[in-house]
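Consider the following input, taken from an annotated entry for BTB domain-containing protein (Favolaschia claudopus).
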Amino acid sequence: MATDTTILTAAPPPFDDPDSDADIIIGSAEGVEFRTHKLLLAWGSAVFKGMFSIPQPSPGTDGPETLKPEETRDGIPIVFMYNDRNGVCGKDVVEYILSSCHPTCLRSGMPSLSVELVGPVLDVSARYTFEWVTKSVLRNSDFLQTNPFVLFAYACRNQLAEEAALAANAALRFCIADFPSEPALRLISGYEYHNLLQCHIRCAKAASALARLESGESGFRLRNWLKNILPQVHSPCCDESRVDSWNHKLNLPMSKTSRFKCSTTTWLIDYLEATATQLAITPYFPSVGDQKRLEQALTTASSCSTCATNVMSITRTFIPRLQREIEEACKEIITETVFLDIALGSPTL
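Applying the prediction step yields:
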């Protein structure tokens, strides 16, 4: 514990009620006071649990085991948390960490987390062993969508393999050429960044191959599934040369062999080839169901009476199956990828 002579001001709810039964106040560098409960801090932090297990001084004005007036507010002890540079934590860091331990905040909504706050919050949560805070920040849904690279960097720095894999999976929605120059990436080794890139490349190859129905056992399953729902006659709108190349892949008769037989169709070929091209750049499985690409396929298919009778069954059954196969293929690659540079060890805080 440490004290400060700064005159404190009220924190935002629920840490501002002087009539609450709070039994501890956390002060910030800006002089904001956060009224909370020792029990919540002890539940969330092994450091605070150990701190509160030691007999604490009581409020008073005399004696070595008493707190000075400036060390209390309304008879409640004031303590401070420190960052990795041994400076008193700022109010935004304190608010986020305390909110992560407070049931009211967890129920009604956490304060916003900016990219600038990710590092300071994680540093302090690691220092005070707020494991729940660390895990929740590294699984932040907003950052997984917009900037998984900052989460990947801090997951590697904190030697958290599961969270690093989660961020690597989220990074699949980005093209490698568009990977940002995220300052937090300075925290990781070239080995870790290389593994992130290689994982992305392997996923892109696997996903693109699946969209072309060319990938091992998964591709075999997709080909068999597709054959069962393809039209039984050649569509009059189809380009025979393109259709026959895909018929050969699916082990189907060529276009001139018989009039009545299972056959691929041009609209589906266009859709799969466009999807494979996109997955080779951004291998994120939801892109298989890209709305614009689907609408184009439906428009093309609906212009032909033969294609129109099958387009809905294919888009509703085969495309979700293709998504699942790509998701599983990428998940397997990510699972077997070792992202962490174990030689670096855990960060020193």
